[in-house]
């Protein structure tokens, strides 16, 4: 009988290796379930501000400093803690400065190494040893594991650790080891990163941010309207291409395209300088304070006007091709009286601020000239053939979507389109009607079709849908009755600039409406949160980012410098750790240089949104639910084996 059981077990080991190790695996999984929940970090509306983004990523929105406070309490001065925090954020740069003033570097190395080891122990404590091991830098993996792991079998621990630290210093590896520890602390401080939309637009470095995200250990992205705009441009959609270039020109960021992505704008520049040679282009002055010399500024302004006119033409063609988009009202060029220099809107005549339209034929206002058509053909090829841009967009497709449900939270960038009474708005697209969750899902499917559909017609629809998502009143990423680009450029009357927001924004404090949205996405009304970006929260006017008694968290507070006068702060970030939810409001980031030299961190005022009575564990998360399912499957297999059911089958 014993030999028979051994034979069964041997056969099971071959055919069912999971069963053979099931009891050990169940114990391991149960241990993971009881670990503290990892820290989630939420950022939104970064808008190309790569220096501020990089710093917030390094400091975990204050999480690193909180870890230092937890470890050292009152045993270190506030100044010492700040120096240690700065070292963790910028180890190489900070050490270069310290070496210029520190007389005894050997002592400094020893003290610093011990402090970093203690912080590292604390940050690693909520993870399994396997997960920490995977995060360790290869060059120092074994040594770091020895230093941060408790060794119960070693009697003289102090001597053991001293010998390791002394050896590191003696062989001249202290600096590289410190850098490795600092980067490991950064890596372990945040378990998972959520980007709730709008990496692109306005700021100078979205391509740098994308490079950084592609190397990040764990991230998901909810697409913003500007992200989808760039995705459409990368897919070759002309309306998206024109908008991307216009916005880069408007904010003095054409370098993003030319240097960041290697897209040749010379044909556009040559055309603009020739066509608008004697035109001051007053309506197309740049936003912000780009570092341009006068000739560069003049060229950018003329390019700005040239691509804007092309955009209005191209968009007119898209609207005509897609009557189902119901956007005919946004075709405005045929309402212009080119002789008088006026336009008729909603039965009222307005005088245009700029009346020079040398490339528009009043009889065919939406037709591109031969030169404009040539420019768009070149740009289309440049965007679709740019290897770096395509890799960035592929990353957005792989890691992103229009919404995400994660650990009981609903994440999306803009709004859920609603009717005035708060009910879900029905939207008709290509002969079918969608609302709520189904609207998000069909739009996301079309974005993917714009890149991957085999059927040319479906791929073309997908491309045009990305432009639709960018500016349609029925788009969950826009949610206004119009995008008043033309009116803002050409009309002085402010009433024409107004963009009426979807009812969603007015109903954010209505608990019945919010509960209905949560239900639509499969979440309970209690204990769930909507985490939202897109519309800057005007903190300086007293607006609160916490809506509907805490159920809705709008965390766009002005990461973009262009918005900071409007909001009064430099953005919100959200931390969701094992103790609850913390909302951090940030002051403007001065510069990386100031952060290193002056040790000036981003000052953040934190608000506790939720403090849990019992510390959240891995078992309370989506990962925990998956692990519990694995345990149940293993237990079923174990029970079947013990009862002889599997043996009979064998």
Give a quick summary of the entry.
The protein has 650 residues and is of the alpha/beta class. The chain is built from 29 helices and 17 strands.
Can you give a write-up of this model?
With about 650 residues, the chain is α/β, with parallel strands linked by helices. Helix 14 packs across helix 20. A hairpin with a 4-residue loop joins strand 4 and strand 5 (about 340-345). Strands 7-3-2-1-15-16-17 form a seven-stranded mixed β-sheet. The chain contains 29 helices and 17 strands. About 50% of the residues lie in helices and about 10% in strands. The longest helix is centred in the middle third of the chain and has 28 residues, at about 295-320.
| Count of DSSP H/I helices | 29
- In percent, how helical is the residue content? 40-55%
Which stretches of 5+ consecutive residues score pLDDT under 50?
none
The overall strand count is 17
What value does the average pLDDT take?
A: 88
The rounded Rg comes to 29 Å
The largest sheet is: 7 strands, mixed
Percent of residues in β-strands: 5-15%
- End-to-end Cα distance: 16 Å
State the oligomer. single chain
- Apparent shape: globular
Main traits of this protein?
alpha/beta, 650 residues, 17 strands, globular
